[in-house]
Amino acid sequence: MSTLNGGADHVLGTTHKKEESPTFPYIQETARKNPFNVPESYVRTEEQMEKHLYTPHLSSHLPIIDFGLLSNGNKEELLKLDFACKEWGYFQIVNHGMQIDLMQRVKDAVAEFSELSIKEKIKYAMPPDDMQGYGHTSVDWSDYLVLLVYPTRFRKPQFWPKELKDTIDAYSNEIKRIGEEVINSLSLLLGLEEHGLLDLHREVHQGFRVNYYPPCNTPEKVLGVSPHSDPRTIAIVMQDDDVSGTEIRYKRNWVPITPIPGALVVNVGDVIEILSNGKYKSVEHRAITNKNKKRTTFISYLFPQGDAEIGALDHMIDDQNPKMYKDTTYGEYLRHVLNTKLEGKPHINATKINEWIGE
C-alpha cells in the first residue's frame, strides 16, 4: 500500500507542509541558550495576535461530556455532544476510564525525553521527506515529536525513543478505545448505524504528537502554534493540569481551554465537518506561550485511510441544507492540505462547492 493510500505520513503532526528552517535550532535550544532572544521569524504583529478578541470568561461554557454515560447510550449525554459539536466544535470528556496513573506515566516519560541533550534528541530528527520524528518549524514557538501508532505496519521504529515506547503503546490503546466510542456516538447523531462512520474510514489511522512549548520572554508577540483547523476526524488532547495555553475560535473570539485535571479535550476535525455537511464545526485553534512556565500537550489524531471517500452524507442534504462540500477522497484532501499555509481554514474552505481549487 502506498503512503498516501495509507494516509499516515500526511496528517500526523502538521496541517501544512513542513517549514523547518536551517537558520534556527530547535526552540528548546534557542530558549536555553538565550532566553531573552526571540528570532524575528517568530514575532507576530498585533493584528495577528488578536489580543482584543481574548475572552476568558467564556471558558467556563465549554461543554463537559461524561464519557461513561455517553458510551452507555445516555440520551441526555448524546444531546450534550450534539450541542458541543454544533456550537463549539470542542468539548472536554470526564469519566473516560483511563487510569490517571497511565496519564501521568506519559507525562513523566515525555518530560524525561525533553530533558535529554539535543545530541540525543536529534537521533530521532524528522527527515525533510517524512512526517514522523522530532522536529520544529521556523514560525511557531514549539518543538514536537510525531509518531504513527496505528495501523502498526506504518510505524517507523527509528523515530520511537526507547523511553517512550511502552508508555505510548499503552496510552494510545486507551485513546483508540475512547476515540472510536466518540466516533460511534457521532455516527448515531448523524443518522447512521453505530459503526457507520468507522466503516466509512475503511481503516482507522491514529497518530500521536507531543508539542513542547518552552517559556518565551515575549508571549504577547509569539504563538506556540498558528491558528488552524485539523484535517482529521477527531483529535484527543491531554493537557498539562496547571498551565493553560490552548485557545479556540468561538464566534470570532479566542477562548482559552481551562484544564480539568484528569479530563481529555476532544475537537471535531474537518472530516466530520464535511461528512455532516457543515452541521458540526471544525474550528480554528491555536496555542499561546507563557513567559515563566514550559508547557506540554499530548495530541492523538484519528483519521481515515487515504482512499476513503469523504463528502456530505446524503441524508444531511435537503432543500434547507444544500450540499456544501465537493466529494473527494481523504488522500486527495490531504494533497491540498499539504500545499496550504497553516493559517485559519483555507483547506476546508477550498473544498466548498464552487471553491474547489483543483479544477
From TrEMBL:
Gene3D superfamilies: B-lactam Antibiotic, Isopenicillin N Synthase, Chain (2.60.120.330)
Single GO molecular function: oxidoreductase activity
Keywords: Iron, Metal-binding, Oxidoreductase, Vitamin C
Xref: PROSITE patterns: FE2OG_OXY
Superkingdom to which the source organism belongs: Eukaryota
Fe2OG dioxygenase domain ranges (all copies): 203-304
Entry annotated with the keyword Oxidoreductase: yes
InterPro entries listed in its UniProt record: DIOX_N, IPNS-like_FE2OG_OXY, IPNS-like_sf, Oxoglu/Fe-dep_dioxygenase_dom, Plant_2OG-oxidoreductases
Chain positions covered by the region annotation Disordered: 1-21
Family: Belongs to the iron/ascorbate-dependent oxidoreductase family.
Name of the molecule in the record: 2OG-Fe(II) oxygenase family oxidoreductase
Protein species of origin: Medicago truncatula
Phylogenetic classification of the source organism: Eukaryota, Viridiplantae, Streptophyta, Embryophyta, Tracheophyta
